[in-house]
Amino acid sequence: MFTLPQKESRAPATCPGPTSIQDLDRNYGDDLERECSRKPDRKLPEYCGASGPTAMLSSDSSCLSSRGRVIKWFWDSAEEGYRTYHMDEYDEDKNPSGIINLGTSENKLCFDLLSRRLSQSDMLRVEPSLLQYPDWRGHLFLREEVARFLSFYCKSPNPLKPDNVVVLNGCASLFSALATVLCEAGAFLIPAPYYGAITQHVYLYGNVRLVCVYLDSEVTGLDTRPFQLTVEKLELALQRANSEGVKVKGLILINPHNPLGDIYSPGELRDYLEFAKRHELHVMVDEVYMLSVFEKPTAYRSVLSLEGLPDPQRTHVMWATSKDFGMSGLRFGTLYTENRDVATAVASLCRYHGLSGLVQYQMAQLLQDHDWINQVYLPENHARLKAAHAYVAGELRALGIPFLSRGAGFFIWVDLRKFLPEATFKAEMLLWRRFLDNKVLLSCGQTFECKEPGWFRLVFSDKAHRLRLGMQRVRQVLEGKSQVAEEPSSYQTQKPRSQHRMEES
Fold first, then answer.
1. Cα within 13 Å of Cα(23), Cβ side
2. Residue 18: is its pLDDT beyond 60?
3. How many CB atoms lie within 10 A of CB 486?
């Protein structure tokens, strides 16, 4: 269970192998998911014991505390690869042979819409109260707008209450704050694969580990789809953790799911919540992609839409504007919980993770503008996401590559197992490296704690010219023709009909 080596060594560990629960060598930042992007030949340190590091992580950090060395290690292990990408970032005019980033889950399709809205006069206001210390939960005017916004878009059966809202600077801070206030040195259950940066979010301040509920691509038993989460799998994972003496205090659910794109039905959500109630577990529900469901037949339901939550005092819902509104750089996230003690404790941490008054005012103006959201932004955003998805899905089909996508989020979960010479994470890492050497950045499955080597996450929420060039480079790698090439002109005359809207964006 979550064992950590005691010192650094040097070995090719760009996408390190899995362990029984998981090492701390996963991903590393909310602003850029730097999956598999760290420097090669760097063996990541692990920890020993349940309470933290037991050895020096580097010999040149004697001025740091043990916590400081852990935090620095997370930064170093991620940032070296991150800096490498930014040193060679693709630019259509200045660096056309640079790296195309299909690994970071950001929506880059709607800057034109957002820049116009955020530049309007009603967004620009300065008054004394916005320049002074706010209520640490967030200004009341913002919490009122958040409550109304979530009530409407989550389809809550009853109006949500501003007093149950806490505002922080992003979901990374929310995960960190909840781990800190809910759990001693224990663990949370999480279905795997999952967005791996959560490992860091819950550990650095809260010292909380993650117990993986490993899901399979093969459909067996009563499963109806690949990587399906069931209560039986949750029970087995909890039993294993208990048998190893691990105290599990909570369950993390991501809905819509990252990286699977899966959407839990209302019945499944209730089953998971009932499981958590039986075992007195807190449930943290990340709904950061709830407005990024772009396929009409896809039925998404927020946890807040359920009539009568099984255990409302232990159910905590997170949402942010980073994904649904393409504002990952603005840093706005919100927690909704009926547990006033949890809300108060998290609000106390807003002293360190709060938003400026000016940003709070902008967010309140944005969230209350339902006419713009419903009539301008969401329809166009969904249309652009759908067109970009259709293009990338068509390219994958042309290559004969299986993939999973349920019409939600910004990514496709791609099965590249047949391109591995052997079913190992070393082979997965080598394939990832071939993509990067050919100037396209993807996210390899092990950074999402996928137990099956060969799965990759491919982000499609980008402009047409970058997608075309990125997919050309992917094709070159898979066809054994790896080389940096100029953007092909053939797409201009042979693009599929579904791409026309994406071209216009």
1. 21
2. no
3. 9
**Cα 486–Cα 489–Cα 495 angle in degrees, nearest 5:** 125
CA atoms within 13 A on the CB side of 242: 8
Burial 212-247 (b: 16+ CB within 10 A, else e): bbbbebeeeeebeebbbbbeebbeebbeebeeeebe
Alpha-carbon distances, residue 333 vs 307, 327, 355, 370, 432 (angstroms): 24, 11, 9, 19, 32
- Condensed to tens digits (0 to 9), the pLDDT of residues 442-462 reads 999 999 999 999 999 999 999
User: What six digits make up the tokens of 234?
Assistant: 């949750």
Q: Is the pLDDT of residue 38 over 70?
A: no
- Total number of residues shown for the chain: 505
The amino acid that residue 154 corresponds to is: C
Question: What span, in angstroms and rounded, lies between the C-alpha atoms of 72 and 318?
Answer: 27
pTM score of the predicted model:
0.86
194 in Cβ contact with 252 (< 8 Å): yes
Say if residue 22's pLDDT is above 80.
no
C-alpha 341/C-alpha 440 separation (Å) is: 46
Q: Determine the Cα–Cα distance for residues 13 and 41; give it in Å rounded to an integer.
A: 6
